[in-house]
Amino acid sequence: MSGSAQADAKGAGSKEVPERRRKGISQVTLVYLIVLALIPLSRLISPAFPSTDQVENILVLGSFLAIVAFGQGLVILTGGIDLSVAAIITASAVFMSAITGAMGNSALVGVLLTLGVGILIGLFNGIGVAYLKIPPFIMTLATGVMATSILLGQTNGSPSGASPPVLRELFGTGRIFGIPITIFFFAALVFVGWLIQSRTTYGQRLYAVGNGEIVARISGLPVKQLITSVYVVSGLCCAIAGIMLLGFTAGANLSIGNDYLLPSIAAVVVGGTAIKGGTGRYLGTVAGVLLLTTVSTDISAMQLSEGWKQIVYGAIVLAALVLSRERPEGGSRTNIFARLRARKREEDMDEGHGDVSKGAAGPGQSAASQNEHRRSISQ
């Protein structure tokens, strides 16, 4: 490729990526602006709104969804989906309450074992999707059904045990400088999630896998291991959410995770992550979390049933999917995919130059075929 052609391609790429970034940023900004508008408008629903208590509730309740949506977001980023999140959350909360009750409220051991349960379930999902080639929808749905059935059988529909005092202090009643401890945890989670997804090699590789598994595999990325890892991370996040919810509610029940399946997907999609994978940012997911949590608190203030929340969540997901069709494919991380293809092209060109440098054509190779070979390398 000539120098001018390279410059043109580089210029076109540099123009294309900022344009996509601007569109991605504007969508996320729009969601944040809607959240800021909904808070004062909520006064139309209740005279007690807006208030500091309302903002605290949004942040506290949003922290549980944010941790689940982080794992769900990584799964969707690679082109998958995790429908077992509700079952893993419930299983983690029930297991945590049972194990700490049996061990005399030994919270540390219970937390470690519960995290292990979440990781194992996520690993089971990941192996089924990445190595057995089972569609993510089927694999994770089956896992969720099996986990729920096991819980029903082991607890007879009524789990026993309570939350350890330390968890109730951390995620229930505890405050630092008058601010709930859960909000500090939320802030730390946002920073860590943004760092992992946007500023690490691991995060960049996930974008590459989401943009195209074949090219990612040709580029030398361990695609199967990466896909497995996102389901492991999702299982771990659900286990953490289950532990947090156990402390917040002071007890476990078999429906504790039911409110997080559709919202975890909705938050990711509303935040700008493509449902087919390859593009999205965690800060956008956080915007979706805050929007859904604000809507949820307003619906609760109106004393509407839980069914209305699910209807609203579903409508928000559909609206986000329709709007996302207007966005160009790719997104803020398309340049990663382009770099992978460029690196593969450079390797092919280097191999081609090496063959040409060896000299004459082989037996039966015409001068025309040599010229064609050189032209293909130059391109």
SSE blueprint and pairings:
Blueprint lengths: L2 H39 L10 H26 L7 H18 L4 H24 L5 H20 L9 H9 L1 E2 L2 E2 H19 L1 H11 L1 H6 L4 H27 L11 H10 L11 H20 L4 H19 L9 H24 L9 H12 L1
Antiparallel strand pairs: 1-2
Helix pairs in contact: 1-12, 2-7, 2-10, 2-11, 2-12, 3-4, 3-5, 3-10, 4-5, 4-10, 6-10, 7-8, 8-14, 11-12, 11-13, 12-13
Name the CATH class.
Mainly Alpha
| The number of domains | 1
CATH topology: ABC transporter involved in vitamin B12 uptake, BtuC
Distance between the termini: 5 Å
From the spread of the alpha carbons, the general shape counts as: globular
Number of helices: 15
**Percentage of residues in strands:** under 5%
The main pleated sheet reads as:
2 strands, antiparallel
Q: Report strand order across the widest sheet.
A: 1-2
Residues in helices, as a percent range: over 70%
Strand tally, please? 2
> What letter string, H or E per element, gives the SSE order?
HHHHHHEEHHHHHHHHH
Oligomerization state of this entry?
single chain
Instruction: Provide mean pLDDT, rounded.
Output: 80
CATH architectural arrangement: Orthogonal Bundle
Radius of gyration, taken over Cα atoms and rounded to an integer in Å? 25 Å
Low-confidence stretches: 1-25, 328-335, 356-365
Helix-and-strand structural type: mainly alpha
